[in-house]
Structures are given as C-alpha cells and as structure tokens.
Amino acid sequence: MPLTMKRKLVTAALLAPATVWLFVFLVLPFVAMLVFSVGERGPAGGYQAAFTLAHCANLSARSAAYWNTLLLAPVGAFLCLLVAYPAAYYLAVKADPKYRLLLVSLVVVPFWTSLLVRTYAWMYILGSRGIPNLLEMIGIEDVRILNTPGAVLLGIVYGYLPLMIMPIYVSLEKLDRRLLEASADLGAKPVATFFSVTVPLSLPGVMTGIALVTILLLGEYLIPQLLGGGKVFFIGNALVDLFLQSRNWPFGSAIAVTLVAIVVVVLMVAMRIAWRVSGTRQVDLV
User: Fold this and answer.
1) Rounded-to-integer distance, Cα 275 and Cα 207, Å
2) What is the pTM of this model?
C-alpha cells in the first residue's frame, strides 16, 4: 500500500469517531428540526406530517421572546466585558506570578457549583427578604429588583463572567511585554500605551469572549426563568413552553431553526471582526 494512501486511511480512522458523533448528535437533530418546522401540530399535540410554512410566518407571535433575547443577550455580554477586562488585565499583567495560578483558579471556582443553586441564591438576595429589605430599613421603600430585566442582567453577569475572563486573560498573557516597553521608550504615557498597544492586541480574546457568551445567552433558559419570574422571556423559555406545555412541536421547531440561524450569523460576524482586528484568519471563537 502506498504511503500516501496509508496516511489518508490513518487520518480517516482518526476523524471517524468525531465525524460520526457530530453527524448523529448535531446534523441529524437539526435535520429533524427542519422537518418538524414545516409540519403541523397533531390533534393531541406533537408533530403531524405535512408541508406548510405557516409556522415560519407566525414567528411574530413570540416577538417578545425574540426582543428580550436579542436585546438582553448583547447587553449582558457587554456588561460581562466591562467587568471581565479589568479582572483579566490584572491577572495577566499586574498580578504577582506566585499567586497568579491561585487567582485564576478562583475565577473558575464558581463552575464547581451548579448554576441552579447559585441562581437560587440570587433569588433570595434580590427578593423581598434580601436587598429590598435592607433598603427599606434605611427608608427606601417599594424597591423591586427580582423579576425585572435588571435582575436577569445581574444573573447573566454573575453566571457568565468566567467565560469572558478566560479568553481575554489568555490573549493578555501572550502579550509581548517588549511592545509595552517600546511604547514607553517612544514617549507614550501608560494610558496611551494601554489603548494603542494592549487593547488592540487583546481584541481577539475580547471577540472570543463576546461571541462565546452571546451565543450561549441566545439559548439561555434558567436565568430568565428564575430571576425574570416569567416576566422576562428568552427564546429558550419560549421553546420550553412550546415543546413541553403547548406541545406545538412544529412551531417550536421553527423558532429553534431561527435561533440556530441567529447563532450562525453572530458567529460569522464575530469571526469577521476578529479576523480584521487581528490581521489573521486563525482565530478560535469556540
């Protein structure tokens, strides 16, 4: 057997398990979703074979879920960025190398606890016995935080902050310190060096974090459900309602297909921006 053919067979054998996994758990479910989206709801719910685009034309019936998702997801990602960048900068540039690993580990510690448990803790903190009760003690009454968009955004920042910190930290850790010294030698002040050298070189990590958090938020269910109290619906909440309660699988599939399309668009835009700011196509977003 020729050496080239042997290499191709070895490569195919190595790629086969991942290819089968992706086909079974990614491609086939998406194809099933496409088929369901053009079907009809059965008399007792579920799916009934048909071909209709009525569900796609009726997406505006869930406009509130789309609006909340497309508004609060980018805002939540931006708020995560505002908190994550200073933290990542301190970890990568300013922190003592002896304690850097410990500090980075502390960033990951929240992932050791279930998001459900942590979100329930925020329900108590933001509920009537938490912050509003403390504010009432000092004379500030009738403050409602829970079941508002603000509570959902707070939960988003708390839950997704580590996912924003780590890509930025990796980009800043790879920063060539000689560039900072060269900027200082040329007379640039620290603030000018930060915005002209540090920030541009860390933009690939920033875009990776924004894309990662935004894509996950587009399908978020738990945080809006618990901290939004049924008043702040995301697309994920609409999907749960349609599939498990209304049992309108075709309409839910149509919404799910549009959600996948939105995720693809977000990913393509993020890759395009990251490619432009980094000057290379080799940018990993996921």
Assistant:
1) 10
2) 0.84
